[in-house]
Design a protein that fits this description.
It is built from 9 helices and 10 strands. With 237 residues, it is an alpha/beta fold. It folds into 2 domains: 122 residues, Cobalt-precorrin-4 Transmethylase, domain 1; 108 residues, 2-Layer Sandwich (Methyltransferase, Cobalt-precorrin-4 Transmethylase, Domain 2), CATH 3.30.950.10. The protein has a 5-stranded parallel β-sheet, sandwiched between helices. It has a 5-stranded mixed β-sheet with strand order 6-7-10-8-9, with helices on both faces. Helix 7 crosses helix 8 and helix 8 packs antiparallel against helix 9. It is globular.
C-alpha cells in the first residue's frame, strides 16, 4: 500500500517533472484540493507536451477517478481512501500548486495513513516558501515559515514579533491580496526598519518582487493594484 504526494508547478507548467507527469496520468486515483485544476493541468500538458508524453510512453488515456480531498472532508473520506489502498489502487495527492500539505490539505491524511501502515512517497517540486526566499535577496541561512497569519490584529503582532525575535534570519508567511497591505502596516508599527520582499505570481510571466524596508514596500503596494496571493519575506538581521 502506498500513497504518493505529487508536487506540481507553482505557476509555470514547464516546471513539471517527468515523474509528476507519469503519476498524474497513470495513477488509478487522484486526490485533489480542486478537481477542476487537475483536469485543467492535464489538458494543458496534453496540448503542449504531446511529444514528451509519447517519448516517455505515458498513457494519457488511462481511466482515472478524481476525488476532492480537503481538511473539511477528511473524516468522511479517509475510510474510502484506505479501502482503495488496501485494494492496491495507486493513489496520488496533489494541491493546486506546489507541494501538497504546505499550507494546503494533506497533513491529516498522511498522518493517519502512516498510523495505518501505509507507505508514503513524495515526488517533489518547489514551494512558494523556498522560491520566494531565494528570490527575495534576504538571508537564507535560517528561516521560519509561519503559513497564513491569523485574522486578529493582536495574534498577528504576537506571531510575527515572536518569529522576528527568534534566531531565524528570515520570516516567511502567506497573505491574501485583501490583507497584505494592512498586515504590513500593522507590522510596521512595531518593526519600522524591518526589510521586506513581497512576492507575487511566482514563476509566472508577470512575477513581482517588491523589495525594500517595510515603509518603502507599503508605499509601492499602495500605488499598484494588489491581486493574487502574496508570499512575504521579512528580516531584521
Amino acid at each position: 500500500m502506498k500513497l504518493t504526494a505529487v508536487g506540481l508547478p507553482l505557476g509555470n507548467i514547464e516546471d513539471i517533472s517527468i515523474r509528476a507527469l507519469k503519476a498524474l496520468f497513470e495513477s488509478d486515483i487522484i486526490l485533489a484540493e480542486d478537481t477542476r485544476n487537475v483536469y485543467k493541468i492535464k489538458s494543458i500538458v496534453k496540448e503542449r507536451f504531446a511529444s514528451i508524453l509519447e517519448n516517455f510512453k505515458i498513457d494519457i488515456n488511462k481511466e482515472q477517478r478524481v476525488f476532492s480531498y480537503r481538511d473539511q472532508n477528511h473524516s468522511s473520506s479517509f475510510p474510502e481512501i484506505l479501502k482503495f489502498l488496501i485494494e492496491e489502487k495507486s493513489i496520488i495527492l496533489v494541491s493546486d500548486a506546489g507541494m501538497p500539505t504546505i499550507s494546503d490539505p494533506g497533513f491529516k491524511l498522511i498522518r493517519d495513513l502512516h498510523e495505518n501502515g501505509v507507505e508514503i512517497d513524495v515526488i517533489p517540486s518547489a514551494t512558494a516558501v523556498d522560491t520566494a526566499l531565494v528570490i527575495s535577496g534576504l538571508p537564507t541561512d535560517s528561516f521560519i515559515f509561519i503559513g497564513f497569519l491569523p485574522r486578529e490584529k493582536g495574534k498577528i503582532k504576537k506571531q510575527v514579533s515572536s518569529a522576528l525575535e527568534s534566531i531565524a534570519s528570515s520570516v516567511i508567511f502567506y497573505e491574501s491580496p485583501f490583507r497584505v497591505l494592512k498586515t504590513l502596516e500593522l507590522i510596521a508599527l512595531d518593526f519600522p526598519d524591518v526589510k521586506v520582499a513581497a512576492v507575487n505570481d511566482l514563476t509566472k510571466k508577470f512575477q513581482k518582487v517588491i523589495r525594500g524596508d517595510i515603509v518603502e514596500v507599503i508605499g509601492k503596494l499602495k500605488k499598484m493594484k494588489v491581486i493574487g496571493e502574496w508570499v512575504v519575506v521579512l528580516s531584521n538581521k
